[in-house]
Amino acid sequence: GNDQVHSWTLVTSQALDTAWRVGKGSVTLAVSFLVGTLYYFRRLHLYLGHRLKRWIGYLQRRFKRNLSVEAEVDLLSYCAREWKGETPHAKLMRK
After folding, report:
1. pTM for the whole structure
2. CA angle centred on 16, ends 12 and 17, rounded to 5°
């Protein structure tokens, strides 16, 4: 009984050892590939996030003066200047 358990343990251990020696290269290669892929996608994600942040900042600066509230303020300040001015158009507006 005890010798039989020992032989099964020995056979199982040897089989696992042989399988590990045969597959160790493949496992190492697969893990290396997985780590490399994860590193690549992490760097890509950081790069795209940085570019997107810069692009959003550019668009906000570019179109900031086209906001409707600022356009209304600009229109009101323009009308105030024209109303107080001494141009023929301002005199016509006051009549």
Report:
1. 0.45
2. 115
